[in-house]
Amino acid sequence: MLKKLSLIIAFVLLAFPAYGIQIEDGKGSGNRAEVDSEGKLYVKSVSETQESHIAHDTGRTFFLSSGASNHVTHTATAAGGYLLYLKNNSTTHKLYVEKIMLVTGTAAESFAVMKKPTLGTISNHNVMTPVNTNFGSGNVADATAYTWNEAGNGMGGLTSGTTMLTTTPVVGATVLPIDGSILLSTNDSIGIKVFGAAEVSAAIRFYFKED
Protein backbone atom coordinates (compact mmCIF):
# COMPACT_ATOMS: atom_id res chain seq x y z
CA MET A 1 0.00 0.00 0.00
CA LEU A 2 2.82 2.41 0.92
CA LYS A 3 4.62 1.63 -2.33
CA LYS A 4 1.44 2.31 -4.32
CA LEU A 5 0.94 5.68 -2.57
CA SER A 6 4.55 6.68 -3.27
CA LEU A 7 4.07 5.93 -6.96
CA ILE A 8 0.94 8.13 -7.09
CA ILE A 9 2.77 11.05 -5.43
CA ALA A 10 5.71 10.65 -7.81
CA PHE A 11 3.35 10.66 -10.81
CA VAL A 12 1.66 13.88 -9.62
CA LEU A 13 5.00 15.61 -9.12
CA LEU A 14 6.22 14.56 -12.54
CA ALA A 15 2.99 15.44 -14.33
CA PHE A 16 2.50 18.84 -12.66
CA PRO A 17 5.96 20.13 -11.70
CA ALA A 18 5.07 23.84 -11.79
CA TYR A 19 1.88 23.69 -9.78
CA GLY A 20 1.65 24.62 -6.12
CA ILE A 21 -0.73 26.45 -3.82
CA GLN A 22 -2.33 29.43 -5.56
CA ILE A 23 -4.22 32.39 -4.12
CA GLU A 24 -6.93 33.50 -6.53
CA ASP A 25 -9.49 36.27 -6.47
CA GLY A 26 -12.74 34.90 -5.09
CA LYS A 27 -14.86 37.21 -7.26
CA GLY A 28 -14.14 35.49 -10.55
CA SER A 29 -11.66 37.95 -12.08
CA GLY A 30 -9.01 35.27 -12.50
CA ASN A 31 -6.35 37.38 -10.75
CA ARG A 32 -3.70 35.55 -8.76
CA ALA A 33 -1.38 36.71 -6.01
CA GLU A 34 2.22 37.39 -7.08
CA VAL A 35 5.21 35.82 -5.32
CA ASP A 36 8.76 36.98 -6.07
CA SER A 37 11.98 34.93 -6.27
CA GLU A 38 12.51 35.27 -2.51
CA GLY A 39 9.08 33.84 -1.73
CA LYS A 40 7.59 37.20 -0.76
CA LEU A 41 3.88 37.70 -1.39
CA TYR A 42 2.93 41.02 -2.98
CA VAL A 43 -0.08 42.60 -1.27
CA LYS A 44 -1.78 45.99 -1.14
CA SER A 45 -3.64 46.61 2.10
CA VAL A 46 -6.08 49.28 3.27
CA SER A 47 -6.21 50.19 6.95
CA GLU A 48 -8.92 52.28 8.62
CA THR A 49 -9.88 53.29 12.13
CA GLN A 50 -12.71 51.55 13.91
CA GLU A 51 -14.70 54.80 13.75
CA SER A 52 -14.19 55.07 9.98
CA HIS A 53 -15.20 51.44 9.49
CA ILE A 54 -18.38 51.88 11.56
CA ALA A 55 -19.28 55.08 9.66
CA HIS A 56 -18.95 53.31 6.32
CA ASP A 57 -20.31 49.90 7.31
CA THR A 58 -23.26 50.67 9.62
CA GLY A 59 -23.68 54.46 9.65
CA ARG A 60 -23.61 54.70 13.44
CA THR A 61 -21.00 57.41 14.09
CA PHE A 62 -22.08 60.70 15.61
CA PHE A 63 -20.93 64.16 16.64
CA LEU A 64 -22.35 65.99 19.66
CA SER A 65 -21.39 69.62 20.20
CA SER A 66 -22.48 72.14 22.79
CA GLY A 67 -21.92 74.74 20.06
CA ALA A 68 -24.68 73.18 17.96
CA SER A 69 -27.28 74.69 20.30
CA ASN A 70 -28.29 78.35 20.15
CA HIS A 71 -24.92 79.23 21.71
CA VAL A 72 -21.77 78.92 19.61
CA THR A 73 -19.82 79.24 22.84
CA HIS A 74 -21.03 79.38 26.44
CA THR A 75 -20.09 82.02 28.98
CA ALA A 76 -19.10 79.89 31.95
CA THR A 77 -19.37 81.33 35.45
CA ALA A 78 -16.78 81.31 38.19
CA ALA A 79 -18.78 78.63 40.03
CA GLY A 80 -18.94 76.48 36.91
CA GLY A 81 -21.05 73.37 36.32
CA TYR A 82 -22.14 70.80 33.76
CA LEU A 83 -21.75 71.87 30.12
CA LEU A 84 -22.50 68.63 28.20
CA TYR A 85 -24.22 65.32 28.99
CA LEU A 86 -24.54 62.08 26.97
CA LYS A 87 -26.26 58.79 27.91
CA ASN A 88 -26.45 55.53 25.95
CA ASN A 89 -30.07 54.33 25.67
CA SER A 90 -29.39 51.37 23.38
CA THR A 91 -30.00 47.86 24.70
CA THR A 92 -28.22 46.23 21.74
CA HIS A 93 -25.21 48.50 21.09
CA LYS A 94 -22.41 49.84 23.24
CA LEU A 95 -21.41 53.48 22.83
CA TYR A 96 -17.70 54.16 22.30
CA VAL A 97 -16.24 57.64 22.82
CA GLU A 98 -13.70 58.37 20.09
CA LYS A 99 -12.67 61.97 20.75
CA ILE A 100 -13.49 64.78 23.18
CA MET A 101 -12.89 68.38 22.09
CA LEU A 102 -12.59 71.22 24.61
CA VAL A 103 -12.55 74.89 23.61
CA THR A 104 -11.73 77.82 25.86
CA GLY A 105 -10.97 81.50 25.45
CA THR A 106 -9.09 81.68 28.75
CA ALA A 107 -5.93 79.78 29.61
CA ALA A 108 -6.92 79.24 33.25
CA GLU A 109 -10.19 77.46 32.48
CA SER A 110 -10.52 73.89 33.78
CA PHE A 111 -12.61 71.03 32.42
CA ALA A 112 -13.57 67.72 34.02
CA VAL A 113 -14.74 64.54 32.28
CA MET A 114 -17.28 62.83 34.54
CA LYS A 115 -18.14 59.11 34.62
CA LYS A 116 -21.80 58.15 35.16
CA PRO A 117 -23.31 61.39 36.48
CA THR A 118 -26.77 60.72 37.94
CA LEU A 119 -29.61 62.32 35.96
CA GLY A 120 -32.48 63.68 38.00
CA THR A 121 -34.85 66.43 36.89
CA ILE A 122 -32.80 68.20 34.28
CA SER A 123 -32.87 72.01 34.12
CA ASN A 124 -30.97 74.91 32.53
CA HIS A 125 -30.54 72.79 29.42
CA ASN A 126 -31.12 72.38 25.70
CA VAL A 127 -32.08 68.98 24.26
CA MET A 128 -29.51 67.99 21.64
CA THR A 129 -29.65 65.69 18.61
CA PRO A 130 -26.22 64.25 17.76
CA VAL A 131 -25.34 64.58 14.06
CA ASN A 132 -24.66 61.42 12.05
CA THR A 133 -21.25 61.78 10.41
CA ASN A 134 -22.28 59.47 7.55
CA PHE A 135 -24.37 61.98 5.62
CA GLY A 136 -26.02 59.22 3.62
CA SER A 137 -27.28 57.37 6.70
CA GLY A 138 -30.69 57.88 8.26
CA ASN A 139 -29.68 56.34 11.60
CA VAL A 140 -30.24 58.43 14.69
CA ALA A 141 -28.29 58.12 17.92
CA ASP A 142 -30.11 56.01 20.51
CA ALA A 143 -28.95 58.38 23.21
CA THR A 144 -30.00 61.21 25.51
CA ALA A 145 -27.99 64.41 25.02
CA TYR A 146 -28.17 67.78 26.76
CA THR A 147 -26.14 70.95 26.79
CA TRP A 148 -26.20 73.96 29.10
CA ASN A 149 -28.45 76.89 28.07
CA GLU A 150 -26.38 79.48 30.02
CA ALA A 151 -28.93 79.84 32.80
CA GLY A 152 -27.46 79.54 36.31
CA ASN A 153 -24.01 78.01 36.71
CA GLY A 154 -24.52 74.94 34.55
CA MET A 155 -27.14 72.25 33.95
CA GLY A 156 -29.17 71.34 37.01
CA GLY A 157 -30.33 67.85 37.97
CA LEU A 158 -26.96 66.16 37.42
CA THR A 159 -25.31 64.84 40.58
CA SER A 160 -22.68 62.41 41.75
CA GLY A 161 -20.47 60.91 39.07
CA THR A 162 -16.78 60.05 39.25
CA THR A 163 -14.16 62.45 37.97
CA MET A 164 -12.21 60.62 35.27
CA LEU A 165 -9.83 63.45 34.47
CA THR A 166 -9.41 67.18 34.84
CA THR A 167 -7.43 69.36 32.47
CA THR A 168 -6.59 73.01 31.91
CA PRO A 169 -6.16 73.23 28.14
CA VAL A 170 -4.47 75.98 26.17
CA VAL A 171 -6.52 78.75 24.62
CA GLY A 172 -8.31 77.47 21.54
CA ALA A 173 -9.32 73.89 20.79
CA THR A 174 -7.83 70.82 22.48
CA VAL A 175 -8.66 67.28 21.36
CA LEU A 176 -8.44 64.40 23.83
CA PRO A 177 -7.60 61.22 21.85
CA ILE A 178 -9.86 58.73 23.66
CA ASP A 179 -9.85 56.39 20.62
CA GLY A 180 -12.75 54.23 21.80
CA SER A 181 -11.30 53.49 25.24
CA ILE A 182 -14.34 54.98 27.03
CA LEU A 183 -17.24 52.55 26.64
CA LEU A 184 -20.83 53.22 27.69
CA SER A 185 -23.15 50.24 28.17
CA THR A 186 -26.93 50.62 28.41
CA ASN A 187 -27.88 53.62 30.60
CA ASP A 188 -24.25 54.58 31.20
CA SER A 189 -23.49 58.28 30.85
CA ILE A 190 -20.67 60.75 30.50
CA GLY A 191 -20.60 64.45 31.33
CA ILE A 192 -18.28 67.42 30.86
CA LYS A 193 -18.00 70.13 33.53
CA VAL A 194 -16.30 73.53 33.38
CA PHE A 195 -14.79 75.59 36.19
CA GLY A 196 -14.05 79.31 35.95
CA ALA A 197 -15.36 82.29 33.99
CA ALA A 198 -14.57 81.94 30.27
CA GLU A 199 -16.05 81.44 26.83
CA VAL A 200 -16.17 77.66 26.39
CA SER A 201 -17.60 74.85 24.31
CA ALA A 202 -17.21 71.08 24.16
CA ALA A 203 -17.88 68.24 21.75
CA ILE A 204 -17.90 64.43 21.76
CA ARG A 205 -17.35 62.15 18.77
CA PHE A 206 -18.72 58.67 19.35
CA TYR A 207 -20.01 55.54 17.65
CA PHE A 208 -22.25 52.56 18.39
CA LYS A 209 -21.06 48.98 18.02
CA GLU A 210 -23.26 45.93 18.45
CA ASP A 211 -22.58 43.73 21.48
Describe this structure in words.
This protein is mainly beta and 211 residues long. 10% of the residues lie in helices and 42% in strands. The relative contact order is 0.29.
List descriptors.
single chain; 211 residues; mainly beta; Jelly Rolls; 7-stranded antiparallel beta sheet; 6-stranded antiparallel beta sheet; 2 helices; 15 strands
Q: Could you outline the blueprint of secondary structure elements for this entry?
A:
Layout: H1 2-15, H2 50-57, E1 61-65, E2 74-76, E3 81-88, E4 93-104, E5 110-115, E6 118-123, E7 125-127, E8 131-132, E9 143-148, E10 156-159, E11 162-167, E12 172-176, E13 182-184, E14 189-195, E15 198-210
Antiparallel strand pairs: 1-8, 1-15, 2-15, 3-9, 3-14, 4-12, 4-13, 4-15, 5-11, 5-14, 6-10, 7-9
